[in-house]
Design brief:
This protein is of the alpha/beta class and 110 residues long. The chain is built from 4 helices and 5 strands.
Length: 110
């Protein structure tokens, strides 16, 4: 089993996850409606923390190419993408931005 803690927004949370051997630390990057959202500048600061064996995940909701460009320059191992993507789009993003992709699906209620 792998453990991912998401919505991190300060160094103490991240350092605690890393020292506790959490597998993945997630950061909400472009979804301003979330109370766990962090700005690009904050993401730059937080992803400079030495992550050891932990992987950093940038969580993005229907990101633009500009946003993918900005966040791909940071120390993320994965992009977790929410939205309607075809498999070929996900592969293109993976290849272009050199990030592993976690695709999230949305289930619609009837």
């Amino acid at each position: 089993m792998k453990l991912k803690v998401c919505g991190l927004s300060n160094p103490i949370e991240i350092e605690t996850c890393i020292s506790s051997d959490v597998d993945y630390c997630g950061f909400i990057l472009n979804y301003t409606k979330s109370h766990r959202y962090i700005s690009l500048d904050k993401a730059k600061e937080l992803t400079k923390i030495n992550k050891g064996n932990t992987k950093y995940v940038g969580v993005l909701v229907e990101p633009t190419i500009e946003q993918l460009n900005q966040f791909s320059e940071l120390n993320f191992d994965y992009f977790q993408l929410y939205g309607n993507f075809h498999t070929d789009e996900l592969m293109s993003i993976k290849d272009k931005f050199k990030k592993k992709i976690i695709s999230s699906i949305q289930v619609k209620k009837k």
